[in-house]
Amino acid sequence: MKPVLVFAALLLAQALAVAQPRPIELHDQLVPQATHASRVALTLDACSGQYDDDLIQFLVRNRIPATIFATKKWLDKNPYGVSVIKANLDLLDVEDHGENHIPAVIGAGRKVYGIAGEPDIIHLRREVTEGARAVEAVTGVAPRWYRGATAEYDPQAMDEIRKLGYRIAGFSVNADSGATLKKVAIEERLQHVKAGDVIIAHMNKPASDSAEGLSTGLLQLLRRGFVFVRLDQVDLQPAAPPAR
Ligand SMILES: [Zn+2]
């Protein structure tokens, strides 16, 4: 290719990149209720990977309700984890995290944290509806909430997810940064939890520090008087982004 053509191609690529919307990370908190000043929600993503039994058994032992965002991929690969969840549906609400953990950004070459997005809206629809079908097959309850892989969205994707009948679940406290944080860092983040917060953490990496950090951090929240609620019992409203 002649240099002038290479230059023109580069300019075109740059123009296209500028035209792509930047994905949005959604931040939400619980809609306040006068009677319950200190409610918080714990949400746990089951993206792909394995089942963190230590974490779920800790929640069961301490009767801490949580909302699990599971992909079809994770449900298919973790029959034991699924059996524990099914035995504890009084405590655990299972919602839709998609079929194959594809971020809700649309267009060729779009990526979030290095994970490729959807080529078009048809694929996004499939990701959402097949994820929901898999959750319902396991729990017998149709999910009402959706959280896309990476929790980042194109405005167009958010519109489509809502049109399909799902509410989109953001968060306000990132407790484990994708199960990459050490125990003390997780505890430290949970120390900053305040009424109305929606905590996000992960239950798909048993080798991480997530179960250990959450165990001590969540017990402290119980001691501080927080009441844990599931997303199927509440509504969310926009919140400021987390400090980190
Ligand atoms: Zn995920």
Mean pLDDT: 92
Could you name the CATH class? Alpha Beta
Tell me the strand percentage band.
15-25%
Q: How big is the Rg?
A: 19 Å
CATH architecture designation = Alpha-Beta Barrel
Oligomeric description of these chains: single chain
The CATH topology comes to TIM Barrel
Helical residue percent band? 25-40%
Q: Summarize this, please?
A:
This protein has 244 residues and is of the alpha/beta class.
Please describe what this structure looks like.
The protein has 244 residues and is an alpha/beta fold. It has one domain: Glycoside hydrolase/deacetylase (TIM Barrel, Alpha-Beta Barrel). Helices cover 37% and strands 19% of the residues. Strands 3, 4, 5, 11, 12 and 13 form a 6-stranded parallel β-sheet that branches. A two-stranded antiparallel ribbon has the order 1-9. Strand 6 (111-112) and strand 7 form a beta hairpin. Helix 7 packs parallel to helix 8. The longest helix is centred in the middle third of the chain and has 19 residues, at 121-139. The model has no long low-confidence stretch (mean pLDDT 92). The structure holds zinc ion. The site of zinc ion (ZN) has 5 residues, from loops.
How does the SSE layout of this entry go?
Elements: H1 3-19, E1 24-25, E2 28-30, E3 39-46, H2 53-61, E4 66-70, H3 72-77, H4 79-86, E5 92-96, E6 111-112, E7 115-116, H5 121-139, E8 145-146, E9 152-153, H6 155-163, E10 167-168, E11 173-174, H7 183-191, E12 198-202, H8 210-223, E13 227-229, E14 236-238
Parallel strand pairs: 3-4, 3-12, 3-13, 4-5, 8-10, 11-12
Antiparallel strand pairs: 1-9, 2-14, 6-7
Helix pairs in contact: 2-8, 7-8
The structure holds zinc ion.
